[in-house]
Amino acid sequence: MRKKVPSILFVCLGNICRSPVAEAVMKKFYPFAARRIGSAGTSAYHVGEGADGRMLQAARAKGYDLSRHRARQVKEADFAKYDLLLAMDYDNFLELKTLARDSRLDVTAEIETFLENGNVPDPYYGGPSGFVRVIEIIERGCRRWGRRLGWDDEERRMRKD
Predict the structure, then answer these.
(1) How far apart are CA 12 and CA 87, in angstroms?
(2) The one catalytic residue among 12, 17, 54, 89
(3) What domain range is 147 assigned to?
(4) 142 is an active site residue
């Protein structure tokens, strides 16, 4: 019997750089879980906008398509809908903890930082090389989460079927 695939919401500030690329990377690495992976921002700064153009370009060069992404803000329902909320940095982790604490819902999601020791840097105010660096950090982080969740084994098993 197969285990339930946990649902994951990647969270950054505006949902136009880090979290949408984390969503795209995880979906590409683990396509069997794609329907259970999403992204959002803790702020409403960019709701409805596409991914930052510099991230679109850097992601496209690495084989990730963000062209259909539209930024959205974390909703209260996300704390019940998703099993795991992964914050790209400690500030967003604290914001998620506050939102969960203040929620009227029964919060069932685990809230963790994406990286064990540190933040995924926000490339928004930097140059193009920062976006490439962030994608590389996120790729390594997604592989680590895949191993932690047992998804590498699931992916290998599904290739055999």
Answers:
(1) 6
(2) 12
(3) 8-160
(4) no
Q: Is residue 107 part of a domain?
A: yes
Q: Is residue 154 part of a domain?
A: yes
Q: Is 17 one of the catalytic residues?
A: no
| Residue 102: CATH number of its domain | 3.40.50.2300
Neighbours of 112 (CB within 10 A): 14
Candidate list 17, 18, 54, 89, residue with the active-site label: 18
Run of H or E including 130: helix 128-149
User: Which is the catalytic residue, given 52, 78, 89, 122?
Assistant: 122
For residue range 74-121, list pLDDT tens digits in order.
999 999 999 999 999 999 999 999 999 998 888 889 999 999 989 999
For residue 12, tell me if it sits in a domain.
yes
- The per-residue pLDDT for 1 is 38
Q: What Å distances lie between residue 41 and 23, 104, 144, 150, CA to CA? A: 12, 20, 22, 26
Distances (CA, A) of 38 to 62, 102, 117, 156, 161: 20, 22, 23, 23, 26
Please tell me the predicted confidence (pLDDT) of residue 108.
Answer: 86
The token duo for 98 is: 């506050």
